């Protein structure tokens, strides 16, 4: 009887440890990286005159796709100070996506013109 209880307890212990990596608890504990295999992704929110993030310091590789995803309650213009420069109109609305890459290494500032806010500075290497 003692041997049977030991086996049952061992099986129960093993079953409790066999959680899959895609279980809700495992996925909730991980935050998405700023840089993925598809490139650098920057999530921007413009709400009630406040811009998030501001003055973020990031890194990207040459010719790496850089995606800026914007949710905004105000129209603005997104400006990327790279060579060549990029400008994107930001409309009022969620889930706007702007993609570009940088072919010349150096410092790239990403700004919003109407709010005079620097979202990020990207060091491209």
Summarize the structure.
The protein has 125 residues and is of the alpha+beta class. It has 2 helices and 10 strands. This is EfeO-type cupredoxin-like domain-containing protein.
Descriptive notes:
The protein is of the alpha+beta class and 125 residues long. The chain has one domain (33-124): Cupredoxins -  blue copper proteins (Immunoglobulin-like), CATH 2.60.40.420. The protein contains 2 helices and 10 strands. It has helices spanning 2-17, 24-28; strands spanning 35-36, 39-47, 50-52, 56-60, 66-72, 76-81, 86-90, 93-100, 106-112, 117-124. The strands form 2 sheets. Strands 1, 2, 3, 5 and 8 form a 5-stranded mixed sheet that branches. A 5-stranded mixed sheet has the order 4-10-9-6-7, with no helix packed on it. A hairpin with a 2-residue loop joins strand 1 (35-36) and strand 2. The protein is globular. The termini are far apart.
How would you summarize the topology of this molecule?
Layout: H1 2-17, H2 24-28, E1 35-36, E2 39-47, E3 50-52, E4 56-60, E5 66-72, E6 76-81, E7 86-90, E8 93-100, E9 106-112, E10 117-124
Parallel strand pairs: 2-5, 4-10
Antiparallel strand pairs: 1-2, 2-3, 5-8, 6-7, 6-9, 9-10
- Helical fraction equals 10-25%
CATH superfamily: Cupredoxins -  blue copper proteins
The rounded distance between the terminal residues' Cα atoms is 67 Å
Shape: globular
CATH class: Mainly Beta
Mean pLDDT value: 79
CATH domain topology: Immunoglobulin-like
The overall number of domains is 1
DSSP strand count: 10
CATH architecture: Sandwich
Protein name: EfeO-type cupredoxin-like domain-containing protein
Organism: Mycolicibacterium gilvum (strain DSM 45189 / LMG 24558 / Spyr1) (Mycobacterium gilvum)
Keywords: Signal
